[in-house]
Amino acid sequence: MTPSVSKVDAIVKDTSVPDGGCHVEAAADQELRAVDYELEKKVIKKIDFWLVGFYSLVYVFRVIDSSNYTNAAIINLENGTGIKKQLNLSPSQWAWTLSIFSYSYMIFEPSNTLMMKVLSPSKWMFILILAWGISACSSSTARDFKGMMCVRFAIGLAEAGFFPAVLYHMAFWYKPKEMPQRIAIFYSIGQLSPAVSGLLAYSISFMDGRGGLAGWRWLFLIEGLPAILLSFVALWLPDYPETARMLTEKERDFLRDRLSETAPTGKKGHWDFDSLKKLVRDPTFYTFSLYWICHGIGGFGIGTALPTVVYQLGFTTTANSQLMNIPPYITSFLFLNTVGHFLHKKVIRPWTTAVAIALAIIVCYIILYTAHNAVVRYIFLIIAVACAGSAYPVIWPERIRALEGTVASGLGIGWTNAMAQFNGIAGPHIYSTVFGPTYHVSYGICLGFLCVDIAVLLTSWLLVWRRDREREGGQTLASEGTV
Fold this sequence. Notes:
The protein is mostly helical. 76% of the residues lie in helices and 0% in strands. The chain has 20 helices and no strands. The protein is globular, with a radius of gyration of 27 Å. The model is unreliable at 1-18 and 24-29 (pLDDT under 50).
């Protein structure tokens, strides 16, 4: 017997419902994803304004306040009102006033980062920025070696918490894949600071004698004032996704849910000290630390004495030498943003890029060691400085990704960045004027550190790769178990 027409219609209708339901569900999912994308785009734009835009502006003046001391080394030398002469500083004492900044920076940096959990990011940033602004202005009042040592130590103490605190703060808001380009933008804008500082030093050198003050005193006073003003703006920073006043409840929930479970959290009283045990047992904690030390000395060390090195190339006056310091940092800004763009597009990879950067610096140092022409040496000095300033931001996302938990992330970021301060401790001595004008000894020492730099970088790469493979294997087994 054949089924009746009504039964056939019913069968067709019943069998077509699930298929139609799939289309409805798919359309609903697609619409939901579109809504989530628009919401994410809107919220991230708000956060980018503060965590990338505002922090980048502040970072410009933070680097200016620390790098202007190298510009002060040669300002108004021809007039007899240079800082070394007025403070009666020997080459050794000058090196110590440069490096004391890094001692306080290195000592206080790891623990300073966790203060963001005690006082909240906005309040802690207000304190840091205000303190270094006042300290920077106070440099203009130093009368002797002891006074300058005290002021420089205070600047390092105040500035110690800023850079790692910014990265730590970003980790509360962004996914790991969103970090590389933002760190590159933030860091690259900071690379413009020495260029700006050089331009300001050139302009301020013409104020020598105004109001009875030497040019270097005007330099410290003028370049410290913006930080004091920006410190009050920092009070409006968004603290954590859970508490941001600038966001709606829906936006706060959305931001909190999009982050991984291992991301640091702003929950009050959430101090996961168990993650600290994992941190000190993790071999990457030590390999990354050694990399930061070696690149800091081998790559960044030259930055501590760049104005003097450029001046001793022998084809410029002290005033024009301030302008000659601008191209290396402009090049660094352009190079880092280019690298950051290609990293974001996944055209290149962080590890291979970092190794290539170290190799490029080695080639530059070999040429600087062997070349005699001042123009050739200046060109490769530009390339070396640009490459040196791009290595850390390339690897920072991988370093942060290797950290888990609130306490481990805070201390890990602070400790790692503190290791870079060895460049400020060793750099002034490695690039002492006693090795000038050729600086053969200086370049030779740095070449040795860069070789170790590449070795520990490759070791860190291997360790992180193995961990990623283990995690992928664990997730595969977990998914098979649920099936």
